[in-house]
Inverse folding.
């Protein structure tokens, strides 16, 4: 069974393609490589193109006749979205509208959508469950929320069933170190901490006066392999007739910035220097997601939830490719 994977040359998309292939599916990667890497598209056919190019998408659909869509293609830098919101509205929303229009005109098929916990905004309660109000505080989160709503509306209008997976902080790398995180620029904490260990530089810690045990922000980290597994489970759920829904991908626990640094020091055997910086505007003290719905609906739980495992896999990838 062929699965069209938009953004399949990216960090999470490529890992999902590997897991799809391991489960007997044939992922067809569709990516314009603006932020993905061609070397990561290695687990099935590759097609170059923009998701907003209706003619190109249509030709790929007719060529491969996929049975489902996994939609990862999106810009995902929160800071960039604040500085350049129209870029995010045009790409994440406008291009997705074109993609879904083309999809509906071709064939009705289930959709697994790569969403984000950024749709929630600042939490009213912890852990954040799927019924938490969605009040995104940046254009990136808002763009994901709009696509979620579009998918719900398309289910009502065209019976286009979907699962929106709202994941928290994706971390780690393929345990076999075939593929991993390679963003330019890199903004995620764990690869930045590991780069500081590798290069003997300092890592900036934004605020140490939060209402947490050590004063630094706490975040919920989910291994990229666990996220990929959840996408395959969501696909099977839809193939089996499951209804449209949204599901958190979370660990149900969090780690502070200083815990991340300390764990990275243990894994790498290197001392990591810290530079304290002022808080960043809009950074909540704690973000932790609830995972009960994922357990109940998809039979999913994170198998690589331990922070040391996550950092070890990321370090293995970083030192192999450097």
């Amino acid at each position: 069974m062929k699965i069209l994977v938009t953004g399949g040359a990216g960090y999470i998309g490529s890992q999902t393609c590997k897991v799809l292939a391991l489960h007997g599916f044939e992922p067809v990667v569709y990516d314009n490589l603006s932020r993905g890497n061609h070397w990561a598209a290695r687990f099935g056919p590759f097609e170059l193109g923009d998701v907003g190019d209706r003619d190109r998408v249509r030709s790929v659909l007719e060529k491969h006749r996929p049975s489902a869509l996994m939609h990862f293609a999106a810009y995902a830098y929160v800071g960039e979205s604040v500085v350049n919101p129209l870029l995010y509205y045009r790409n994440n929303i406008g291009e997705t509208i074109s993609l879904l229009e083309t999809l509906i005109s071709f064939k009705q098929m289930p959709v697994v959508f790569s969403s984000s916990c950024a749709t929630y905004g600042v939490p009213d309660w912890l852990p954040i469950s799927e019924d938490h109000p969605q009040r995104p505080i940046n254009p990136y989160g808002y763009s994901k929320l709009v696509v979620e709503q579009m998918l719900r509306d398309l289910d009502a209008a065209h019976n286009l069933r979907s699962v929106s997976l709202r994941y928290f902080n994706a971390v780690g790398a393929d345990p076999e170190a075939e593929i991993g995180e390679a963003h330019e620029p890199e903004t995620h904490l764990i690869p930045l901490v590991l780069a500081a260990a590798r290069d003997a530089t300092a890592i900036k810690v934004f605020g140490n006066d939060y209402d947490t045990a050590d004063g630094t922000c706490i975040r919920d980290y989910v291994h990229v392999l666990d996220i990929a597994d959840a996408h395959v489970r969501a696909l099977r759920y839809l193939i089996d007739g499951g209804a449209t829904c949204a599901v958190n991908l979370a660990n149900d626990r969090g780690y502070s910035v200083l815990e991340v640094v300390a764990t990275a020091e243990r894994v790498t055997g290197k001392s990591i220097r810290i530079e304290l910086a002022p808080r960043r505007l809009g950074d909540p003290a704690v973000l932790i997601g609830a995972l009960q719905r994922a357990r109940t609906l998809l039979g999913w739980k994170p198998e690589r939830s331990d922070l040391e495992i996550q950092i070890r896999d990321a370090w293995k990838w970083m030192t192999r490719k450097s």
Summary: The chain has a mean pLDDT of 96. The CA atoms of residues 127 and 289 lie 5 Å apart. The longest strand covers residues 26-31. Residues 85-106 form the longest helix (22 residues).
